[in-house]
From TrEMBL:
CDD domains the record matches: PseudoU_synth_RluA_like
Keywords for the protein's UniProt record, in alphabetical order: Isomerase, RNA-binding
Protein name, UniProt field: Pseudouridine synthase
Enzyme class: isomerase
Entry's Gene Ontology molecular function annotations: catalytic activity, acting on RNA; pseudouridine synthase activity; RNA binding
Chain's role: Responsible for synthesis of pseudouridine from uracil.
Organism, scientific name: Neorhodopirellula pilleata
Pseudouridine synthase RsuA/RluA-like domain ranges (all copies): 133-289
Length: 380
């Protein structure tokens, strides 16, 4: 199979225990050497702090916190810890971590949630609809389903308002959701109206029979016209909201991504990307791993906004010397989310058995970036 056909048919599927007597600095601030049980806030969110008593020695942290925090179920506590909500002696831990007498536990309380998705009248860009499924062009900035910090304004809330019946395979807070896109990734997402269609689609994802193509703009120059990135991924060892390349680690999973360069603009590259597997943040981590992170990727590129001047300089043109832009125009922010768009999705329709490909047009913000690159820089 040649590189082009490989691209066209790329598929996507999604501790030692110790204690310290010294003062520790954790994600939620400095821990005093001998704290009492207390409460406070971190970035406006409630934080509880405990010293583990002798009676709780050896308990899992999720069970310990469930006993300490009235009004929360163990599943809520476990999810909050999984999502970076708990520290022991300044170190982020997993729900299975067993606490020891005298350790200092700090916990970010989960926000109250509903067992059901609350319908909201949010406009949707419907690309396709039949009796069994809906295909939506998700905008950047929209979270797919409710989670900590994002209980409203989600795709599932918009779907619940518009459609009377959606699958419930993934529970009441994720009606119809077969797969996900990151909050700041725009593009094609498929939604199931009933459980039979959902299970059929889920099997396609599991068997890697779903083809996806993303458009990405990267910070960096890719020298190869096309290539595979084959490095395993796992959760970042210290930052629980990030993934990382984890070779030879028990938590790592194989991950494979194919890319093909579409245009080079100095130190900026536009690429089409087809992930074969579907690990969390896969494209973002893989591109960063080869030295070309996605533009404006807050987690993996280290910057969350991009000004016109920054983009022009990266593209290799000093616009101030040519009088094209004013100083104010050069300082204007033109992108404030990761430059990643799910442009195409190919599935087999569970009800007709026909292969279908859906296309989401490039959103205005990314189109403006590409137009500026074409105008300002020398392409190859």
């Amino acid at each position: 199979m040649n590189a082009s056909s490989e691209f066209e048919h790329g598929h996507e599927q999604g501790a030692a225990e110790d204690s310290s007597e010294s003062v520790a600095v954790g994600k939620y601030g400095r821990l005093p050497a001998n704290p009492l049980e207390s409460s406070g806030e971190f970035n406006g969110q409630p934080i509880r702090q405990f010293v583990v008593p002798d009676s709780a020695d050896g308990l899992r942290i999720d069970l310990f916190l469930t006993q300490c925090c009235d009004g929360y179920s163990r599943s809520q506590i476990r999810l909050a810890v999984q999502e970076d909500g708990g520290e022991v002696d300044g170190r982020i831990v997993r729900p299975s971590f067993k606490v020891r007498s005298g350790q200092i536990v700090r916990f970010r309380l989960p926000e109250p949630s509903s067992d059901d998705t609350i319908p909201e009248n949010i406009p949707l860009d419907i690309l396709y609809e039949d009796d069994g499924l809906v295909v939506v062009n998700k905008p950047a900035g929209m979270v797919v389903h409710p989670a900590r910090g994002n209980w409203s304004g989600t795709l599932t809330s918009a779907l619940a308002f518009r459609f009377q019946s959606l699958s419930d395979v993934n529970g009441p807070t994720r009606p119809g959701i077969v797969h996900r896109l990151d909050r700041d990734t725009s593009g094609v997402i498929v939604v199931a109206k009933n459980n039979a269609v959902h299970l059929h689609l889920a099997a396609q994802w599991h068997d890697r029979e779903v083809a996806k193509k993303y458009i990405a703009i990267t910070a960096g120059r890719l020298d190869r016209d096309r290539d595979w990135i084959n490095v395993p991924l796992g959760r970042h060892p210290y930052q629980r909201d990030k993934q990382a390349v984890r070779e030879n680690h028990e938590s790592s999973k194989p991950a494979s991504t194919f890319y093909e360069v579409q245009e080079r603009y100095g130190r900026v590259t536009r690429v089409d990307v087809a992930p074969k597997t579907g690990r969390t943040h896969q494209i973002r981590v893989h591109m960063a791993h080869i030295g070309c992170p996605i533009l404006c990727d807050r987690l993996y590129a280290g910057h969350a906004t991009l000004t016109r001047g920054e983009l022009i300089r990266a593209a290799g043109l000093d616009a101030t010397h040519r009088g094209v832009w004013t100083t104010g125009q050069l300082g204007e922010v033109i992108l404030d989310r990761q430059a990643l768009h799910a442009a195409e999705l190919t599935i087999v329709n569970p009800q007709t058995n026909a292969e279908m490909t859906f296309h989401a047009p490039l959103p205005d913000d990314l189109r403006r970036v590409i137009d500026l690159l074409n105008r300002s820089g020398e392409t190859e």
